[in-house]
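Quick one:
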Amino acid sequence: MIGIVSYGGYIPLRRLSRMQVVQQMAWYNPLLYMLMAGERSVANWDEDSVTMAVAASFDALHLVDTKSIDAVYAASTTFPFDDRQNAAIIAEALSLQDGVRTVDVSGSLKAGVTAIVAGLDAIESDSARKVLVASGERRYTRAASTLELLYGDGAAALVLGREHVIAEFLGSCAYHEDFIDHYRGAEKRFDYPWEERFIRDEGFGRIIPRAIKAYCEKYHTDISEFATVIYPCPFAREHATIAKKIKSAGVHTNLHEGVGDTGTAHPLVMLAHALDSAKPGDKIMVVGFGQGCEVVAFQVTDAIENIKRPKGITVSMARKKDIPYAKYLKFRDLIDADISIRAEAMPNTSLSALWRHRKMIHGFTGYLCKACGTPQFPPYPVCVNPACNRSGQMENYSFADKPGTVLMYTGDMLAASVDPPAIYGLVEFDGGGRTLLDFTDCELDNLKVGSRVAMSFRIRREDTTRGFTGYFWKAVPLME
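Output:
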């Protein structure tokens, strides 16, 4: 039996009220009135498709031995690098083995489901024991556009394998059409959409039912056998119309009201949301849309009752905080705000230093003294315990999964920051070890000594001149 072994999801903390956008921008684009209900998820300024995929992957790997992961398939249309493998960054942040195969899957919004099928093929052919499929998306839109209200940011991840399968793989089907509902040319920042009625009628409304029909004919099954049918469609009315066309009573919500369309990640996000409440025996069909469709189906097994469900999409959807529209515009670089003279200096990243310290920077790996058991970060060959001070007795020790407690902090209004003040301080980790860290997803007034924090992989600096994104770990306050 092959299928899903574990799953995880991540929706960023911030939500943008669509009504807020309508109130401020409908004078310019009255069409926004049609989309004023609900809210959409918004990535923080230090989040992108890679960092969110890492967060979702940590959620998915909570019960999985990372040494058993043989491949990472990362899917997105908004990867930060065109010529640097993004899946390799994810693998390094997760401290996976050096021998893991890393693959980027992109070029279409169905890439997330394509990555699932590719991962299942790898397991079926015995070229991998377990495969991590991670998909994240942070798409840029023009201000006051309908896409600004339809899109959302988020990520989801699946661990595929043969043992302890919670959802058995039933089959897959590909359906290809070079239908262009939107596109984004090379070096372009924004999607270019076509007319909405054409997209609805000739795109989602025609292609998705055809793909589902093709799957049912291939496997001699009927749509009524599926407890849940998942397909992306950001248009609420058309989403309901498709449900009538395929004659299914189990169509999953498109999550438009609280999240928005998360692009390549969206079929996986909806699948993770469905698995949060799935019961043994449930059959689930997942459709990815983009230049045709990719269809994959699973059946939930009894094993799902025996696992500790991950934090997943349900929990991260409930954990939310409103973001003002002006701050959203700045986070997306849609307004050119002064960031002070201190931000003008932008030295290049030393790639040789990054290579030497990659496990520390990307994997948040320190040392553990084998002589006395003292953890320390950053890694240093001499034990920091004054009662030990042994040298050469160190082994790697990951702090990425260790929660901690705030010992001291400050808010710095002089430091250049996209979201001032820059907040940083000293964190003591459970089990030992202390280090100075930036804080994110928090306000200075809400932080206090003794606050509990978790670690999160985030953007540390963006060199827009050279196109390089640098990552490190930050502290995120735990919700009480």
